[in-house]
Amino acid sequence: MRQLKTSSFIAFVILVALALSSLLAFAETDHHQIKLNQLGYLPSAAKVAIVADTSSNSVASDGPDKFYIIDLDTGKTAFTGTLSNSQRWPYSDEMVRKADFSALTEKGNYSVALQASDQSLNHREKNQASSSFPFEISDTPFERVHQAAIKAFYYNRSGTAIDPLTGGSHARAAGHGDTRMKVHKSAATNKRPEGTLLSSPRGWYDAGDYGKYVVNSGISTYTLLSAYRHYSDYYRGLNLNIVESGNNVPDLLDEIKWNLDWLETMQDLDGGVYHKLTALGFSSMDDQPSEEDSQRYVIGKSVTAALNFAAVLANASTVMADFEDQFPGVADGYKNKAIKAYQWAKQNPDAYYHQPDDVSTGAYGDKNASDEFAWAAAELFIATGEKHYYHEFLAQQVSPSQDLSWSSVSALPYISLLSSAKGLLSDQQYTELSNKLLATADQHYAIYDTSAYGVSVSEADFVWGSNSAVLNNGLVLIQAYRLSNDDKYLEAAMSTLDYVLGKNATGYSFVTGYGDKTPVNIHHRPSTSDDNDVPVPGFLVGGPHSGKQDKCSYEGRFAATTYADTVCSYSTNEIAINWNAPLVYMLAAAINLQ
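User: That's the sequence. What structure does it adopt?
Assistant: Structure tokens below.
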């Protein structure tokens, strides 16, 4: 009996302790969560934090109306504002209020608080329940993360070692030289039958796996080329500490050329382009590149791969024409290969990729090539000046859609034509193209303007790689700003950058190593299989969506909250080059346009 009473008492104590623990946890987090760009803001930029009420999924909070910006160096209140009215964000089922402190332009280190400062230097420590992560207002809040986002491509190079001088603690041995690829039966021709050995070195690993895929490399390379085109003065002086640094070529172009060198090798003798280079299946998560030795193949040929190839090489030819001394003959070579690939695509318009039965790596299948035809024709018009390509672009009757992704590229020909072909177009043609792109940007702006989170994100954006979908919305908005010089587009565009850097329903800054709450357990084989406690920095993870294709465990129930920082979660926590590319572009825009 005494034992029973003792056991009951112990159980009671445990229950009380658990209850107290829960209460303390509630007190520490409060029912307010403040989400904001964890890296900071330029002095002139719009600055908005989100105060989310988690005490109820449907009822607005009766919490404080005021918010305060605390100077973390002095402990004093630097700014006082009034929270907006509460509004529901359907994608997270939260009631949220906006804290707009755009009027604060003085440089410094700050946090957003729901309580006034007591002027103590440890204000934030005393008020964890109602304070945000720290952030800075400065002239250079994005310089380091921007360089890291580009350097992530360097860390994902195939076929080379990453040495300690350029890679630091993420140095690794070379893997996947790819000099003895076999032609898969799906790509076999009379001149290159099944089993033919090919050399296809260099390039970037596509994502968390070790495959190399033409269509995804295509949009990634194009986006980086666009960043260089639009902000070339900035990039000419940017040193990224890669092996090519100091060779009289901008480091960003050196990085891009590493992938272009690989893309060139993926063209067959007839002008067609192999869809991908992978093993037959995915490797173990425990394998470093130098440890993974599966036989690799060039697999399939597709019309979309040929058109992506044609568009990107035509685009690159006009950039590389300025570096003829460093890369003699390269620009013309790119252009000629682009023309040949485009001709093959016109002869094989229905050659869509079909995943072979013995292959389980990423398919990147796309059964509509009209947007790719339009893109390739536009780029060849710019590269050659031949008007028949412009007529072929028009013949596709493609307008820029809201969705910009590897499989939906209809906005890209408009971006290229409007930024690079003004001298080739009549005023009427230029105006017509401009109006169509602005109309798409206006759709993105309307979403931003009515969003509870103050971000251009719609339900359609919560897909696999949602973070890149959001940033690509920003990329289109930037083009509208460049066309119109209307600040509303720039403000809406920057909201997408704020989103991925912390102003989102999860509270994560989704870029590895940058922010106070960042992904650590990313689905990325080089990071998972090395001896480092932290992942390669500068990678943007895919982000939340409710697909759960990986069957992992998720706490979130809504599209904007279904995210897990676990290696298991390849649907939300993998990295990919086509996600990092718009991150690079948007950071370059933030640095150069605000």
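The first helix runs from residue 2 to 29.
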